[in-house]
Amino acid sequence: MNRIAFVFTHGPHGDAAGREGLDALLATSALAEDIGVFFIADGVLLLLEQQQPAQILARDFVATFGVLSLYDVDSLYLCAESAAERGLDADAGWVLNAEWLSAADWRQRLSAYDTVMTF
Hints:
- It is a single chain.
- By secondary structure, the chain is an alpha/beta fold.
- Helices cover 23% and strands 18% of the residues.
- The chain has helices spanning 17-29, 80-85, 103-110; strands at 4-8, 35-39, 75-79, 99-101, 115-118.
- The chain starts with a strand and ends with a strand.
- Its main location: cytoplasm.
């Protein structure tokens, strides 16, 4: 079975990449067993709690990341450098528990996947 990675690089608002990636991830989880989810650059912002998308007339899809464990998606990785560059740390309040990795470890973990889909 192929190992499939989903890489989130865009923030939660401004374009539909995060929402579309999450939809694709949930659909793929019904067909694949070995899925990894990676957050880097502005993609780390997808995991922040307390977002208020209604104020910009956007849909609140970020909380849906919290149900990934119900879909047996447990391999979650966040680039620690990306979070630090945005002034975030482990205490920032996250919608799910992702493993914090250095950029080098993040890339190494990603390289173990056969297919990479970037959103």
